[in-house]
Amino acid sequence: MSALSHLRVLDLSRVLAGPWATQILGDLGAEVIKVERPQVGDDTRTWGPPFLRDADGNETKESAYFQSCNRNKQSVTIDFTKIEGQELVRALAAKSDIVVENFKVGGLQQYGLDYPELKKINPKLIYCSITGFGQTGPYRNRAGYDFMIQAMGGIMSITGEPDDKPGGGPMKIGVALTDIMTGMYATVAMLAALAHRERTGEGQHIDLALLDVQVAVLANQALNYLVSGTPPRRMGNAHPNVTPYQVFATQDGHMVLAIGNDGQFARFCECAGRPEVAADARFKTNSARLKHRDALVPIVAHACATRTTADWIALLEKAGVPCGPINDLAQVFANEQVRSRAMQLNLPHASGANVPLVASPLRLSATPPEYNSAPPLLGQHTDALLQQLLGLSQVELDRLKASAVI
């Protein structure tokens, strides 16, 4: 039995942060009901190309983006701007354990679908709201998107090359990491709320803000600032607290050298044929190396340029010095370790396509993630679910369709 097979999640979210969280819950066995707008659906359904192709090679209308965060879900189309649609969502919420939504603050209140209203019909409900800036504070009514939150939350001030270097200037991360991390924090919060409910029988409201999450995941860089009072600067691929810990050019490309302690540095110097560098008082300790970074990095760079990437990796791995190649995504999914961990999977899609997906990284010995269904077609489960869960007859379904409620 899956870890969360006893739970039902009503997913009113769209785009990435909310769907990422509910996909994690679905992978762990929860029943996830994704409520989408009739005829339109989640915004990301149209965020392509690329789109899936069916068995005959024909392009479908199913975007790769949507596939990335919506497996193990049932799609139900309901227009809850209409009174009958609101009644349907409330009926589903009454039979659910968790509701996840990412509307603007107060956006669902006008439909009677906010936490205070749903709590009246389901006191044990866990209701997770995801917004750009949270339910409180002077920015609470602003819309928030990953890119702008990366800018406002400081990560772009420490990502990219320095302003005085070629290509310097602010740089966003290559995926919507603030959304992803917000989805992760949302999952943690919901599991914590479930643990609380098991002890007390009480549900609760979870208030998650993208800006809060972005500030939280600044991690050591935030503490570097709070302790020193000096805002960290962009350093390209270098590390603010450890060196040498960056990208270096090799004879045929580049590699990452990730030296985390003095022993590793000494072993690197031995492998490079420069043991005297490790004995130099300027470079003996990490603190000293940081102080003399400008003198050290050219020495390491000169040494790295004398061998190929493959030669360096073979040599340094034997010596226990962390290093690695810089792979593109084709190389990532061809990598023997990635393949051995089965990080790519394929599921049959209702469109006739075979959808490639990235597996969950969670490895649980007793209750591992399950991949029961590919991301759904828009409204794929509307009739069956409303019949089974709410007891609607075919006549009632036909009437709701005729009035564009579903």
Strands, helices and their partners?
Elements: E1 8-11, H1 17-27, E2 31-36, E3 51-53, E4 59-63, H2 64-67, E5 74-77, H3 83-94, E6 98-101, H4 115-121, E7 126-131, H5 146-152, H6 177-200, E8 204-209, H7 210-216, H8 219-228, E9 245-249, E10 254-258, H9 262-271, H10 275-279, H11 286-291, H12 293-304, H13 309-319, E11 323-325, H14 329-334, H15 336-340, E12 344-348, E13 354-358, H16 382-390, H17 394-402
Parallel strand pairs: 1-2, 1-6, 2-5, 6-7, 7-8
Antiparallel strand pairs: 3-4, 9-10, 10-11, 12-13
Helix pairs in contact: 1-6, 6-7
Description:
- The chain has 406 residues and is α/β, with parallel strands linked by helices.
- It folds into 2 domains: 8-217 and 341-402, Crotonobetainyl-coa:carnitine coa-transferase, domain 1 (Rossmann fold); 245-328, formyl-coa transferase, domain 3.
- It is built from 17 helices and 13 strands.
- It has helices at residues 17-27, 64-67, 83-94, 115-121, 146-152, 177-200, 210-216, 219-228, 262-271, 275-279, 286-291, 293-304, 309-319, 329-334, 336-340, 382-390, 394-402, and strands spanning 8-11, 31-36, 51-53, 59-63, 74-77, 98-101, 126-131, 204-209, 245-249, 254-258, 323-325, 344-348, 354-358.
- The strands form 4 sheets. A 6-stranded parallel β-sheet has the order 5-2-1-6-7-8, sandwiched between helices. Strands 9-10-11 form a 3-stranded antiparallel β-sheet, covered by helices on one side.
- Strand 3 (51-53) and strand 4 (59-63) form a beta hairpin.
